[in-house]
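Quarterly update from the structural biology core.
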Amino acid sequence: MELRRFCLAILGCGMACGLAAWAAPRPLLAAEAQPAVTLDDSGPEATLSNGILTAVVSKANASITALKFRGFEMLKSGYYSMDGGKNFRTPAHCRYQVKVRTPDLVDIGMTRVWKDEPQAFDIDIHYVLRRGDSGLYTYALLDHPAAYPAGRVGEWRMVWKLSNDLLERIYVDDLRNWEMPNSRDKTEPTGIKEITKVLTGVRAGKFDCKYDFNANYWDLGCWGHASNRNKVGAWIVLGSHEFFNDGPTKQDLTAASGINHIHFGMNHYNASSIELNAGRAWQKMFGPFLLYCNYNRRGGDACWADAKARAKTEEAAWPYAWLAGNRAYPPADQRGTLTGRFRVSDPLKPSVTAAHAWVGLAQPAPGGNWQFESLNYQYWVKADGQGAFTIPHVRPGVYTFYAFTDGAVGEFARPDVRVEAGGATDLGEVVWNVPHRGRHIAWEIGAADRTAKEFRHGNDYFQGYLWMHFDKEFSNPLEYYVGKSDWSKDWNYAQARYTQGDVPTAHTWRIHFQLPKVSNGDALLTLAIASADRARIRVFVNGGRRPLAEVTPAVQGGNALLREGIHAKYCVEYVTIPAGRLKTGENTIALVLASVRMASSHVMYDYLNLELK
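Predicted structure, tokenized:
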């Protein structure tokens, strides 16, 4: 009977391997059921293999030189790098070591001790292959001993360049998954070096750019490429997001033409850098994450579905029990949990709730902002439909608890929340009484969610040179009538400069609205801003030659317009409208983007309202 069960198990495994991708390392029914992991580290390269996947790693520079799966070479090159231009750095002259070597798992590491590079950090890069798996784990540590000089890193990433034309489809999210140009298609350069125009093939007439595929990492568990023709896929798969900078609204490059990116120091869209003063000891682990290869006879979409399922498997397994003995990666029993229930009380918008709110723990510097925090780990989850939350696997420490939700401007913060190792902290009911300066809201434009996605082009903002057509789509001034206009059509996702002929000029957006009566108190205009770059907004009320106010958003930068984003970093600005400037009946508020010298100048509004007393 036992022999029969064993044979059926082997047969079932063989069928699964032949028809579908490996979703995760499966428990072994017998030691010989799956080949052991082998390591050949003679010579300048180390070769890891488990009978499913074979990876070849250069000992000197910690790069991957080959990744073979089902007879396909899945990789042209794979490497870690820092910064760009004259400060571009990849590890070199590394010290090689074997951390773990068993039949079930091999972990090899390459360490570059800082010499005189611009970034004063030691870099320790690891690759891990497990028995029965079709993915290669990798993780990296940056170390800044106290004896080192000041250190700074902006861009900090891992790049997986794919074999030419092996995987014809790209997969990022529901908006961006399609067949890509191949190496034989003709293209031509444009005035922006990152953007090319495709002249032939399936994307003929369209622009192609790595920024087409920017995304919030915290919204994704995986991204990559797959093939209907070859039935295989290549994916970045995450088990956790804790090691990324700048919180859950941070975006950066994902997949692009012939490449998978993962940016730990997400340096685009107005990111924070890793900056340390001399004398400060610091270390941070980035990863592990998975370079996942899969197969499905149904092709690319099925491979994508499997990669998303694998991401759920990795999340459930985090922190990985197989990564032990590293002070930068505490095991599950040395981490803590935070629980509670978040509730929103908004007297002017009673429909706003805490359902699916972002709640999280971060450790920004005093007076800082979690949107600009790179040195520490951040822990964020979405609350459930009733606002209940559990934040698991938190490193012990003292944090600030943050929360924000769709429909409400700003965020909640509670400092000095302590998480103990091996323990659970219950915050109980956490109530955010959303502040307002008025007694009622006269009108609203947009839906507060820290993006401009509800406005025009909110679902195709990633098209190259989209901003060149704004003058053909909108008049100057743009006229918006509260109660009549539709913000999904009549309000653009970005207010940028307006080009008349070849002459850039200020673009005026006028909001027309009726007031049945006016109060004696001041009114308040709320401008929640999803992105601003070189922006100055002049605010006029009911005409006049001089603006009532000129708003310079406190958070600026990131070039989200030219980098084809729907947001960068969030801030809120308020404009007080003195009593007497509004009138019973028809009123107009005009917003004029006054800074038009640079093509990147813009503001992306998240949400606007007018509150009256």
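Residues 471 and 500 are 7 Å apart (CA to CA).
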